[in-house]
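Operator note (shift B, R.M.): manual run for Type II secretion system protein H requested after the automated queue skipped it. Running by hand, logging everything below so the morning shift can see what happened. Input copied straight from the record, untouched. If output looks odd, do not overwrite the archive copy; leave it for review.
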Amino acid sequence: MMPYNKNSGFSLVETLAIITILAIIASISVPYFHIFFAKQEAIQTIRTLNGFLKSAKNEASVRHARIVICSSSNYEQCENNNWNNKIIAFLDSNANRKIDHHDVVLKTESLQLKYGQLSWKAALNSPNIIFNQELGLPIGYNGSFYYCNHTHAIYHKIILSKMGHVRTETLDNC
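Run finished. Output pasted below as returned.
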C-alpha cells in the first residue's frame, strides 16, 4: 500500500489557472467552428445540387419522361422557392408540375440549411426545373441556384446550362 502524500494533485490556484486557459482557448476557437461548419454546408449543398441535377437529367434521358425538380417542405407537394429545406425529383406524367397520386417520386433530398440561404432564378421565372422527355434537357428551364451566407461571406452560384451541364462559380456578394 502506498503511503498517503498530501502534496499530490493540483492546488486550487493551479486548477483555476488551467480552467481559465481552457476558457480563453474555447472563446477564441468557437467563431472558427462556425466558419468551418458554414463552409462545409456550402460545399455539401453544391455537391447535393450537382448530383441531383445530373441524376434528373439522366433519368429524363433513360426513361424518355418529363422529370420535375422542385422545392418542398414535406416531400408531398411543390412549393415556390423554398429551397432551404427539401428537394424532390419526380416523373410528371401529366405535365402539370405537381405531384399527383400516379406520379413517381424518383429522388428526395433534405438540405436543412442552417448557415445559408438557397434560391433559384430561372430563365422563364419558373419555380421548378423541368427536364424534357425528348432529349433530357432543361430547355427553357435553365438558370442558377444562389447559395448566400451573409454571416461568413460565403457566396456561390450553381449554374444549370441549356444543355443540362452544371458548373459552380464563387461570387463576391449575393
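Quick read of the result: Residues 85 and 112 are 5 Å apart (CA to CA). The chain has a mean pLDDT of 89.
Leaving this for review. - R.M.
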